[in-house]
Amino acid sequence: MISQDVVVALKLLQSSQWPGFARLSEALGMSLSQVHRSIARLSESRLFVDSEQTLQRANLAKFIINGLPFAFPARLGEIVRGVPTAWACSELKETKLAGLVFDDLVPVWPHSDGKIKGRGIEPLHPGVPMAVRTDKELYALLALVDVLRVGRAREREFAEAELQKRIVHART
Questions:
Q1: Which residues pair with 104 in a beta bridge?
Q2: Residue 99 pLDDT
Q3: pLDDT at position 102
Q4: What's the CA gap between 15 and 64, in Å, rounded?
Q5: What is the arithmetic mean of pLDDT over 115-139?
Q6: What is the pLDDT of residue 78?
Q7: Top-confidence residue, 105 or 84
Q8: pTM, whole model, 2 decimals?
Q9: Residue 139 shares a structural domain with residue 95
Q10: Pairing between β-strand 79-84 and β-strand 48-49 as defined by DSSP bridges
Q11: Residues 41 and 88 in one domain
């Protein structure tokens, strides 16, 4: 697996039926071939069932919570302009996570259209900052993933529980 496969899987969580490669490609800012290869890798990893065109939600939650922070680690980098992520995500402001963090500089995905200055985190795919502009649930999921990648123990604990809830019980 590669990091973009996680982005594709999280986008698929929101669909009650198979959206098609073209729609996924457009929504995520990936090429058709990238999406095809991601689905193939997700299937190979037993996170996606080709014959049913569905995600294995419990397996996906296990992988993201237990494996992703080790497979795709991140660190807070230099100060840049970008799109807020992790605990700074606007979609998570109403959660307990907002009260757990006391850093002055927020984590951001570097992006030229970004309006917030913060410490840069490389997103799981370069198209993420654009993809989350119109997809609030994907934004929240990817921000929670970043909490796992760079957060402290208290933040990670919250993100694990929230991701478990959102992945396993996401609308179908």
A1: none
A2: 58
A3: 56
A4: 19
A5: 94
A6: 95
A7: 84
A8: 0.92
A9: yes
A10: unpaired
A11: no
84 lies in the same domain as 140: yes
Domain count, the chain: 2
- 46, 71, 96 - which closes a domain: 71
Same domain as 123, residue 60 = no
Position 152: which residue type? R
- Name beta bridge partners: 84: 108
Residue 85 pLDDT exceeds 70: yes
Range of the domain at 151: 79-168
Same domain, 44 and 86: no
For residues 64 and 109, state if they share a domain: no
Q: Which distant-in-sequence residues (6+ apart) come within 8 Å of 6 by Cβ?
A: 64, 68, 72, 124, 145
Determine the 3-state secondary structure of 172 from DSSP: coil
Using DSSP, state whether 51 is helix, strand or coil. Answer: coil
Mean pLDDT of the chain: 91
pLDDT at 128: 95
Same domain flag for 89 and 159: yes
Tell me which of 154 and 129 has the higher pLDDT: 129
Residue for token pair 């009260």: 99
Q: Write out the two tokens for 109.
A: 């995905």
Single out the residue in 44, 71, 98 at which a domain terminates.
Answer: 71
Give the pLDDT of residue 171.
Answer: 60
CATH assignment of the domain containing 66? 1.10.10
20: alpha, beta or left? (left if phi > 0; alpha if psi -120 to 50): left
Residue spans of beta strands (DSSP E) within the chain: 48-49, 54-55, 79-84, 106-110, 116-120
